[in-house]
Write a structure and sequence with these properties.
The structure is a single chain. Helix 5 packs across helix 6 and helix 6 packs antiparallel against helix 8. It is globular, with a radius of gyration of 20 Å. With 174 residues, the protein is mostly helical. The chain contains 9 helices and no strands. The chain has one domain.
Length: 174
């Protein structure tokens, strides 16, 4: 019997809800990272390192889908699949550029790892725009996957509402 999980899902122990939670955490961290004035440079760099790991896990967990989407792009089966693949490619390149340029201008993490950041106007000129393109492409990525996000959120909210129901029926006393 097929459960809809890929071999990679089973081996990682993450179902759709787990992947969704991972994606939500990545989104929240990316939103924080995108405002270094709010977090300060040290937290900006640590959160950037953490979200890089989360995005790498996201890509690994969804690699089978990415590979299949690339095959569909080559075959030009569906316009939506093509748009999704293009958006994902832009998102990937922008994210890598933001992380790489961030590492090159790092003031906190590079010295902790015994590295000297290259600095320079070129890397600073790449870092901001790449971060903005990442957030923009991520927004489009979410828009393209909105039905899946909504369906999963409703599925998560259902069990939560059922657990809360006994409290409501008993007048709020457990």
């Amino acid at each position: 019997m097929m459960t809809g999980k890929t071999a990679r899902d089973r081996s990682a122990g993450l179902n759709a809800r787990g992947r969704f939670a991972l994606d939500v955490v990545a989104l929240l961290i990316l939103l924080l990272v995108n405002n270094p004035a709010l977090t300060g440079i040290p937290m900006h760099e640590w959160l950037s390192l953490g979200v890089t790991v989360i995005i790498a896990v996201h890509l690994a967990l969804n690699w089978d889908w990415t590979r299949q989407a690339a095959k569909r792009l080559v075959k030009r089966i569906r316009l939506a699949s093509t748009a999704d693949t293009v958006v994902d490619a832009i998102l990937f390149v922008a994210f890598v550029l933001a992380m790489l340029s961030g590492a090159m201008i790092s003031e906190i993490l590079a010295p902790l790892f015994g590295l000297t950041a290259a600095g320079g106007e070129m890397w600073e000129g790449i870092h901001g725009p790449a971060a903005y393109v990442t957030i923009g492409a991520l927004s489009v990525h979410f828009a393209l996957h909105w039905r899946w996000i909504l369906r999963l959120a409703r599925g998560i909210a259902g069990p939560i509402a059922q657990k809360a129901q006994p409290l409501e029926q008993s007048g709020g006393v457990a």
